[in-house]
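User: Hello, can you help with two protein structures?

Assistant: Certainly.
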Amino acid sequence: MHRRDFIRLAAGTAVVVAAPTVLRAQTKPVIKVGLGPQQPTQADTRRVWEPVYKAVTDKIGATLELQVANDWAGIATALANEQIDVAQMGPWGYVLAKINGGARIINTMLVNGKPTYKAIIVARPGLTVAKFPEDAKGLSMQMLDVGSTSGWLVPTHFLKSKGIDPKTFFSKYAEGASAAAAQMATINGQVDLATGWDTHRNIMIKNGTIKADSNTVVWESAPLPNEVVAVRKGLPESVAKELQAAFAAITADEIAKQMPYPYTGYVVGTDEPYKMLEQMGYDLGALKKSS
């Protein structure tokens, strides 16, 4: 651990150099971590992930300060503006934070041992959509917030690639729902279709929140690069490396004890798999190339 690097992370730590041992123990560097709204509620997200991040920050001798964002766009903005040091976030949020604020990836998350997942579109019970999007014209659609990879970027790019403007193709179109709310809206018959991602839906089924036949998956994307752990632009590289190594070194026993279903660990991440999402952002005009 490079203590001088950590001293720069948080106000109030500069007294470490000449302080006695007890005071040094009281002034451990602080790592500010932000989490996207991955679980059904913010409280759920904190409950399942805080032990993991506490273990990682303990390993590198830091104190954890954890926040959970309301939406995926919010966590990207917080990292781009360097309001937090580390974010566990969706792939599109990472791309936004990289382009807008120089954030950089340190780890990719594994789900059932794989670094990929899929975007999905689900339909309310009893609704038949044999072929998507052809059979979906005139139905109602609920998408997630515009910072969501699977809930906005990927399905919107897919529809646009078919020459379809989702805001006019569907009889009612809305953005901004949480993933859990969108799933429940189809189950309750409030909307015909909703976006989401397979990992999240499987968690809701596993937790008993919904059943596998509560709604129907009518479309799924090609495999997408998984969620990431990313750090802010100004975080010293030595600290980023410490964190990267600590995540990648989580053992099978620790995974079994600490990580929620279906997550199975972290690998060292690179930017390359996420360039496909960056291109989608440019295709949709959500990102602008600098002149």
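That covers the first. Now for the second protein you mentioned:
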Amino acid sequence: MSEGRNRRRLLLALPLALVAALLAAPAARAGLLFPESGGSPNADSIHTLYVMVFILALFIFVGVEGTLLWALFKFKAKKGATAAQIHGNTKLEIGWTLGAFVILLFITVFTFIQLPSIKNPKPSLIDENGRELTAQVDGMQVAATNQSTPKGPTMTIEVNGQQYVWRYLYPGQDQLLTYTDMVVPVGMTVLLDITADDVVHSWWIPKLGGKMDAVPGYTNKLWFRIPPDAIPEGQKQVVYTGQCAELCGRNHANMYGRVIGMRMADYKKWYADKVQQLKTAETDVAEQQKKLTEQESQGGDE
């Protein structure tokens, strides 16, 4: 087989392997061209900002490349013709400098307009019992701290990254801990306090908005609110998947995370069942330890 044929096959195999690798990692792709959205208001704002910048960049790309191609064909070399020697064009240089400034100014202004809707949590749409609250809390002023806290009910969950699993601590006296799966009521604004125990991780559920680093010794803030109508008709929950977005060790690729949205009644049932399961497990372990102690004691007496 000739060397040229091998080289052509290698050149064809490389892009195919790259495409296959991308298709095999849907969570990392997080949308083919644009960020995923629809799972939370901040994700929608990120998507809007991304699309605006993409469209603007597309117009600029087409304009620049179109002008370049037009110039290449218009002024291509011809027999007997001598190319004009041009040394700068002051008007043209000032024009594209001002044009670039205006484009950057527009992107900056639009970004700062969108930024509050990405950073500041919106109020919950429901109260602690699942009743709608939209009319009472929309438009209320919010307090200013590291992350604005809207008035009305919210749920704060502590997110802790550990090699290679996510741990969630729920509010309340039960001190409920879960791993990998975070279950929340839809319509409720969920505030996240994100940290880590060992190395730097990054919590990211693409459809729920931006990602946030989990850094040992620091607490970073993030939020989301799943729309009540996100649960498909006839089903009890909606599931959003994600993965650690910071290379955190050799098993980083296995550090998955899921957020499961339920209606308030289903969430309360899940919470009560989970607390009961843990209490039952603790009781069983205590009884087993007691039996082992008694057996060891009896063995010692013999």
